[in-house]
Amino acid sequence: MLPPDTPAPLTDLHASLLELRTRAEQRRALVTQPTELHSPEEMQRLVQELQVHQIELEMQYEELLLTQTEAQAARSEYVDLYDYAPVGYFTLTDTGLIEQLNFCGARLLGTVRQQLVRRRFALFVVSAQRLNFGQFLARVFSSDSTQSIELKLQQEDGTTFFGQLEGLRVDTPAGPQCRLAVLDTTARQQATAALAASEARFRKLFTESCSAVVLVQGYHFVDCNAAALRLLGAADRQQLVGQVAWAHSPEYQPDGRRTIDLFHDTMAEALRTGSQRCEVVMRHASGKEIWVEAVLTPIELGGSTPVVHTVWRDITAARQAQQQLRQSKEFTESLLDNTVDGIIAVDQAQCITAWNAQATTYFGREAAEVLGRPLAEVLPYFNNESQQLVARALAGERIDLFGREFQQRPGRYDVHIVPLYHSGESQPSGVLTVVRDVTERDRLAEEATQQRLRRQQEVLAAILDTQETERKRIAEALHNGLGQLLYATKLSLAGRAGVPGLARESLKLLDEAIRATRTISFELTPGVLEDFGLQTALQELVKRIAPAGLPVRLHLLGLGHRLNSQAEIGVYRTVQELLNNVMKHAHATEAVVHVAYENGRLDVSVEDNGRGFEPALLVGQPLPGIGLAGVRNRVALLGGRLAISSRLGQGTIVSFELEV
């Protein structure tokens, strides 16, 4: 007897239906017999049997309906499991003909089921693997176990795909058959090929990379490439593979940390975060220590001892350059902080990037307080002119300012504003401002200038005194020697008047010689200046010039009392020289001399209406002529400053002022 959930076989169902039909026909025969042939007892018994049989028929009919329902459910389940399965199912004969297949199998082969029945399955195997399929089919029919093979199949239109074939022999009344399941493994094959290609690329990258790469597992090197051997100077892999990861490093790092502790901590952090970087000192095979940057990346985390991919990079040169840069920076900072100049650097936005100790002294602000802030904000007195100067420097112009004064600090300062350029750039990236206190330098320079002027004045005074002394000596010699001799000659000629005409001519010449001698003697040393002072001497000078044809108007004020002898001699000689220049060069028709003394100040000017000077000769050029140069020197010796105003055709005014 079958279990309740087992569908009844179709043979049993047909037999039951046939038996039910036979019994129904028997009862029909009983019912159709004439009633007169039977007794009432028989008729009653017959009715009872008919009722019993009717009940049995109804029960059997219900059982048939139930069996039919179960059979339909089983068929639907079979169709769902077979026809709509996600795996291709085929029934093949021992010659490889397709007897039956499901929808997935038809879809795999690329056509409808009706066109695939009674066709050879080998036609859908690529020609290069049909022999393998034949051998697989032979194994299926010769064995009771499931056989497997993976082949490259092709659809009706020639499209190829990979399929996994699982075959099992089944014996049927019609003969042995192969129940074949086909699974599309194209994606798996592609993934496998991609994985193999990836592994090949990784292996090539690992072995042929110019970067040193090692694999670490359980704190030991398990593999390395040629670049890693070159980095450590190792001859072969045996010198590295199998050793602990810190075998080629000193016991302690430069910071005093143990190398083994550094490695353990870095490895733990790499496993925790997925990657970690560190810098470590390692030892080359030659014994030389090198700096190495190591980047650790775990690549296999499934096992108890993960594999860590480690890339080494030799950074010895970079560390040395960094050390030199740090030393250079420290030297620069020391240089800036110890220089006597205030150093301020700003960027293109005029924000402060450098501020040394001397700048703190000048402006009273610490570097930490001002760095990164706008210059105008740090220095409120940074006015529009200063901003324009910085803007010009940012445009590439160097600006030098000398002897400037600051509002917030006494003294005088030289300021140099210099554009700063980065290497290879054509536009300034910032501005460097150098401020130097030159107060003491200017004071010393001024003192030196004053001292030099005093020495020059002393020399000039000595020269002038010597000149005056020599003039006086010559004048006395002319007056007392040559003048007396000429006068005696005149008296002698006057006593010998034998030839009246000749005597008169001789006496006339002698009178001219005596007057010229007296004039030269007066010009060399005007005795009237020593005896009566500057006012009388100037008046006498104008009287002596009048016969030469140059009218001179003399305006004197405040000269009623004597001045010091050096001032009187200097003013007299200056006026005398200027009037001589007017007579020689100016072609003037009139001259005016103005000398006024008031409140210890002496104003002197000589004006003429002559032809004047070229204006260009008075700007940045030495004064023309020896006379004007002598006048300038004499005025400078007296502590004054000569001023000359001249226009072509309109005359010249020469003036100076003296403190007496």
From TrEMBL:
UniProt keyword list: Kinase, Transferase, Two-component regulatory system
- Give the protein's recorded name: histidine kinase
The record's listing under CDD domains reads:
HATPase_UhpB-NarQ-NarX-like, PAS
Q: Does the keyword Transferase apply?
A: yes
Q: Which organism is it from?
A: Hymenobacter artigasi
Superkingdom of this protein's organism: Bacteria
Q: InterPro entries this protein is in?
A: HATPase_C_sf (IPR036890), HATPase_dom (IPR003594), His_kinase_dom (IPR005467), PAS (IPR000014), PAS-assoc_C (IPR000700), PAS-like_dom_sf (IPR035965), PAS_4 (IPR013656), Sensor_HK_TwoCompSys (IPR050482)
Q: Where is the PAC domain?
A: 276-327
Q: Name one Pfam family in it.
A: PAS_9
Ranges for domain PAS come to: 328-394
What NCBIfam families does the record tag this protein with? Answer: sensory_box (TIGR00229)
Q: Which SMART domains match?
A: HATPase_c (SM00387), PAS (SM00091)
Sorted alphabetically, which PANTHER family does this protein's record hold? NITRATE/NITRITE SENSOR PROTEIN NARX-RELATED, NITRATE_NITRITE SENSOR PROTEIN NARQ
Q: Which reaction does it catalyse?
A: ATP + protein L-histidine = ADP + protein N-phospho-L-histidine
Q: Which residues form the Histidine kinase domain?
A: 571-660
EC class of the enzyme, as a word: transferase
This entry's Enzyme Commission designation comes to 2.7.13.3
